[in-house]
Amino acid sequence: MSTSLTGNEREAIFQTAVLSRQIVRFIKSRPVVTRQDIEKVFTDVPRKKLSGALRSMKYRGAIKIDDQGVCTALLEITPGELADRLWKTARMMRRFTAKSLAKTAEVSPRFASDCCVTWSEHRFIIRIGSDHRDALYKMVSTDLLRPNIARKTRR
Amino acid sequence: MSTFNEAIESCGLNLTEIGALVDLGKSAISRIKAETYPNWEHLQKTILNKLVQAGYLSADMVIAEPGLFGDGPKVDPNAFISTQNVQAVNALCDDLLDPTTSLNASIGLIVGSAGYGKTTSLQHYAAMNDSVAYVLYMEGYTLVGMMKAIAFELIGTSGRTYLENLALIDRATSVVRKLIIIDEADRMPIRLLEGLRNVNERCGAPILLSGEESITAKMDSQPRLHSRIRKPEIKFKALNHIDVATFYEEAIGLVISHDEQVCRQLLRWANRDFRTLVNDAHHLCRIMNTHGLTDLTAEVLNEYKPYRK
User: Fold this and answer.
1) Of A68, B37, B174, B261, which residue is the least packed, with the fewest Cβ within 10 Å?
2) Is ipTM > 0.85 here?
């Protein structure tokens, strides 16, 4: 069985469209990951781009590559991970309030509420009523991955 | 000149900009400043706190607003409580996902009556882990339908036939180990359970089945299914006194685990219902705040008992 994946498949498997986050998640998913392992999985990514991404991540302190080429992820939470987690939770729960979403995904209620308002404005979720004083939403999007849109934050 | 006036002059914002922070106009802010606006004391505190939050003022300007029932212990409504059931689920899922463990018997089983929190704990685990695909079994799923749902969750696309979907699942699980959680699996016919066993064997993907008691009988009816169940098989239990102690510690910050009498009393009042437990906790926190207490003891419970209906 060939392990060469297309870009879309990789995005779905690692639940993110961002290459650096995919690499971090791949490193976290195995006990030992070498640079060669990464090159085998990310075959569709041009070698130059992959090297650049690894170099940049190493420089930013997201990963560490030792002399043997073994990679270690250093960041516990990568940027965008909380929003990805919320999106996945919303897809699983189907009907939710910002509070119930925040509780299940273990994020702050304020962050969940901001995400719900933004997704609601873009019609990924719709408001179907109220649960006591909280807005009750329903997931209508069939997208597996979180849409990449700017989150509206309250002042 | 009062502290409020000094603060808003030093923050560098004009009255319109300050008003925007609390959804008021500049004339209202002017009247709040002159202490002629209704409820101006409360609004002054709110504005100062907003300015501190926005970084216009230093943190020492924060004015704490005492709650109606004091500033003592409070129930955090957003805390996810790791009860013994949740901990057992997390341990089993971690074990199935651990790339160093064997896939020899890698079908996990979670059994429990409705309303015990199986789905919530599974969704919580799936939310916290990227390597988990959560699929809710729907009545009417065929084998192909089931495989399509799993393939879509794993790789974002699905095929038309059983074999196409099997190949997609194989492709997705060949890169990283993925745990497939099937909720409400007790309603699945044996044929679909056998199909999942094939996925487990062919693709090397651990599977976790969750459902009510009838799933155990279905799994036991086929020796080849039964032999693949990962130990321990988790049976969801009703709330117990350890869960009560965990709730008070994680949601309120009160350590009552050393006082078993208090835990058992609270459990008896809750009648093994989590909602009643939370409601009692809210009332107890208010009583403790009103009397300035910091420890939850048997005496506090006795004081509360006559008011509990």
Assistant:
1) A68
2) no
pLDDT at B309: 63
Write out residues in chain A with pLDDT < 70, as ranges: 1-3, 76-78, 152-155
Per CATH, A7-73 and A81-139 having the same topology is answered: yes
Binding-face residues of A in 76-115 toward B, CB within 8 A: 84-85, 88-89, 92-93, 99, 102-106, 109
* Residues A29-62: tens digit of each pLDDT: 887 888 888 888 888 888 899 889 888 888 888 8
- Report the greatest alpha carbon distance in chain B: 84
From the list B78, B99, B174, which residue is nearest A31 (CB)?
Answer: B99
Instruction: Name which of A11, A31, A145 is nearest B100 (Cβ-Cβ).
Output: A31
Candidates B22, B49, B78, partner chain A, best to mutate (most A CBs within 10 A): B78
Cβ contact A9–B99 (<8 Å): no
Which of chain B's residues have a Cβ under 8 Å away from the Cβ of A41? Answer: 175
Compute CA A123 distance to the chain's CA centroid, rounded to the nearest angstrom. 20
Q: Which of B127, B131, B171 sits opposite A104 (nearest CB)?
A: B127
Domain B84-235: CATH superfamily, name plus number: P-loop containing nucleotide triphosphate hydrolases (3.40.50.300)
Interface A–B counts its CB contacts (< 8 A) at: 86
Instruction: Provide the residue ranges of all domains of chain A, joining segments of one domain with +.
Output: 7-73, 81-139
CA distance to partner chain B, nearest, from residue A55 (Å): 23
Average model confidence (pLDDT) across chain B: 83
Per-residue confidence (pLDDT) for residue A88, from 0 to 100: 92
CA-CA distances (angstroms) from residue B146 to A89, B51, B137, B141, B159? 20, 54, 8, 6, 11
Indicate the DSSP class of residue A147.
Answer: P
Residues of chain A contacting B138 with CB distance shorter than 8 Å: none
* Range list of β-strands (E), B28-187: 107-111, 132-136, 179-183
- Write the CATH number of the domain with boundaries A7-73: 1.10.10
Contacts of B131 (CB under 8 A, 6+ apart): A29, B97, B176, B177, B178, B179
At the second CATH level, the architecture of A81-139 is Orthogonal Bundle (1.10)
To the question of pTM greater than 0.90 for the whole model, the response is: no
CB atoms under 10 Å from CB of B60, counted, come to 6
Say what percent of chain B tops pLDDT 70: 94
